[in-house]
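--- STAGE predict ---
source: upstream dedup step, 1 unique chain passed
mode: sequence only
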Amino acid sequence: MGKDVFERVAQEQGIRPLSAFYLGTRQINLVEDKEIKVPADLNGVNLRMPNSEAWLFLGEALGANPTPIAFSELYMALQTGTVDGQDNPLPTVKSAKFYEVTKSITITNHLVDSVWPVINEARWQSLSDNQKKIILEALEEARILCDDMNIERERVLVQFFRDEGLMVYNADIDVFSKEVLGAYLENEKLTESWDMDLFDRVQALE
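--- STAGE serialize ---
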């Protein structure tokens, strides 16, 4: 399925994705100690989001009040109370030191972050089959290393944050999944360009 998507991107955009690296799964990280079980628990929470229509809608779908803040300004925004929380993978919470200015994390698993190495399609087609093979083999080795590293970091970071004094909670992920996805499916403006056949194939994987 992923190869089908990569091929479509190459044909439509002129750039070819060569792999997909796992960067982590986004969780809810709040300034206050507050357990989030369902999206309704985020009602009234000013949740930082990147400043784009798609990201801001995600904040709404999660049940929060999305507040656009640049990532470079986020630590200060959390520290001063400009926002009540933010969402990022656990490795990002640690590397950006957001745990220093927050008190709780709720595991919601609401979005998987990935990065796709890409190459210009014309350039890719100019390479020999052997060159393509070498590049893809190198990327696969790098992907495995990246994925394994981030999965392990996520596993150990829960205890790290607890040791730093944060409370770590687990949301009702089934409820989050149902309600957040439902909010997207009701938004025709966002979903009018979706390939619903592909969407159904993805859902069938569950």
